[in-house]
């Protein structure tokens, strides 16, 4: 019968390991498989492919070390396929009915039947009592899963078994196979198209990262090799130039005057149907929930910014005599700006993890509340909600550093404060080399931290859970620890399994594209992570998870559109980073229009970009407290301090050159950048 599970064969196994759990093994005979293959229009082979194989490519032997055996790469010959028709069985290439449908198709058909089987009595009108999902939710069954075909570490004893799990583990999931190609056809045959498409996309994405990583390394190496020729950095580090320039305090009371060369190293830049009222109410509640959590993220970011403003003064007070007077471990790299940036980035990363954990359950709840008509619609709605939240959560701090920090500072005597002067939280400034170094620090901590935490969650936690769950079964003889019990002790692969895998990669894609101009090594870090990610995911699927139910898929779904949007947005963000966050444009303007001497040179750029301010005109509220100034500061000899001009009434309007006009209402920052009017 097609209306009840009696169409399948049932085998009961009451003798389980704990003598409490009962297993029910379901087998679908040929008639059932053929009937539902016709219903589902499953494509099957009807003719061997006669398309000639491609000719051997010259120097193909160079790729031989990266290739897998032919029987692993192509477990089945190439065929022409057509939707199965039970009335035309002779049309299809059926050599053996027991093996005609691959395992992934068989478990997909069985699951399709089980999700639609009613379990109410015919004399009762309880139509909602249908499907294995409801039985799982009400606790009638604890789990339902397809069986693996063998142990992953050795072949099945039955010679008729293909031992595909063993081959996947040997040739795909081993970490020493990281340089090998993926057996995508075998993955599709064993796990189904949806999982196969994920690994095909992940492999392609990783291969493309190689070229981006090469370009990033070239940019980084060029920056290292050209460091000695960087006149601007030399002037900052030169004791006769940067050492003679006294900068204005970076915060009120607790910050002292400082010399430009104290931050010498940081100046180098690495560039179903519902009634309409009910539907409307549900969507309004859903939108309000998403908006609330987005505002919560913004509030957390504001809190981190306030932390940066408040703690900077404390670090500056501790390090007032020299950048390393109290911290000797890492030499002159430690500055108040760097200490504040690193600690704030770490706190921000912890907040990101906490908000992600909380919002994950909220997003699933509000998506369930909307009652999508199909599973695909459900996945797309959840995908958009989760990505929008993750986008704000992960990238908001980076956007702040890249486009807002140091842009609204004010000038000595008229500084800008975050919540007004009463808060005493003066807007923070960039380091002398600009905000790119701090943006790089933020990206490195959040991106690397996310990858490390993700790998621990994906590899270590399932391993520990499986070890603990199978501790009793391992002490029993092999003959009494059955295949279904071994699989029951593995972790369940939930319907959101691939969702989180895609989400992780898309967030990573944002990091390596949106801000790559400030951190060219980001693609290299992503490449190393993804080489490991492919094998970690493969190892999880073959050793730590129950065999998932096979599912059909045409593409990667809504993720494709999201990737396109991120790629387009990355063009805009990187253009803004180059134009407004870096000092590339001001350098070029100075080099070709305002350089000193007859030859185009950057010599004098630092002095040209700094404005003078008379110390005697700085209000008492902005002056350092008694005892905060360094020992070299002398009121009688040092009468002016310098700050960077990021807004000027116009080039050439001062008596000598840009910025060399005392007591002008110029916007100042410690970052070497201009906004040209």
From TrEMBL:
The chain crosses the membrane at residues 198-225, 291-318, 338-359, 386-404, 506-528, 562-581. Its main location: membrane. InterPro entries: Anoct_dimer (IPR032394), Anoctamin (IPR007632), Anoctamin_TM (IPR049452). Residues 17-184 form the Anoctamin dimerisation domain. Keywords: Cell membrane, Glycoprotein, Membrane, Transmembrane, Transmembrane helix. GO terms for molecular function: chloride channel activity; protein dimerization activity. It is found in: Cell membrane; Membrane. It holds the Pfam family Anoct_dimer. Belongs to the anoctamin family. This is Anoctamin.
